[in-house]
Specification:
The protein is an all-alpha fold. The chain starts with a helix and ends in a 14-residue tail after the last helix. The protein contains 9 helices and no strands.
Length: 176
């Protein structure tokens, strides 16, 4: 058991640029919010129990998204989350790769698209679109299509728009 714990500690999780991790975390939070909103109506549990269970799964997937995109120091401070992440690293190690998480995020997007059957459910379409966008970016980063310089340029542009230091380098916008 001690050897397994040491192997888990040595396992790295591929992390993208801070801005990509931030939008992935926020997409997961949005997905969690949508899942909780769907689950609040307990009468749906009686009339559509399978859908209710599916929303629970989507909520767990959203929490997992947030878990893998959060700072590792935050996760290590919470024993239950750390244990859950270690279990996922052991049994679903594709989640440690940006490409694996990209496919996972695309999968979540398809689950939300299955719920969006009219414009009145635009929030689920937005959630699906955000997860699909983040999934595509993760796949691109995994395959080296989105090199760090392009990511840094995107971050610099976002910093100029928001006026905030998003990547923690102490400047807003690009360093000239």
């Amino acid at each position: 058991m001690a050897m397994l714990k040491q192997d888990m500690k040595d396992f790295d999780i591929e992390q993208g640029p801070v801005f990509l991790r931030m939008i992935a975390f926020l997409s997961g939070a949005g997905s969690l919010g949508c899942a909780v909103y769907k689950m609040v109506h307990l009468n749906k549990a009686m009339s559509h129990p399978v859908m209710y269970i599916l929303w629970g799964y989507i909520g767990v997937f959203a929490l997992t998204t947030m878990l893998f995109e959060a700072k590792t120091t935050w996760i290590e401070k919470i024993p239950g989350l750390n244990k859950y992440q270690d279990m996922l690293i052991k049994h679903a190690n594709f989640m440690t790769l940006m490409g694996g998480r990209g496919v996972f995020y695309l999968f979540q997007a398809t689950l939300w698209m299955a719920h969006a059957d009219s414009l009145s459910e635009i929030i689920y379409m937005v959630c699906a679109g955000a997860l699909a966008f983040v999934g595509a970016l993760h796949l691109a980063a995994h395959w080296g299509i989105m090199p760090n310089t392009i990511a840094q340029k995107a971050i610099a542009t976002a910093e100029k728009v928001t006026g905030k230091d998003l990547n923690g380098d102490g400047t807003v916008g690009s360093k000239a």
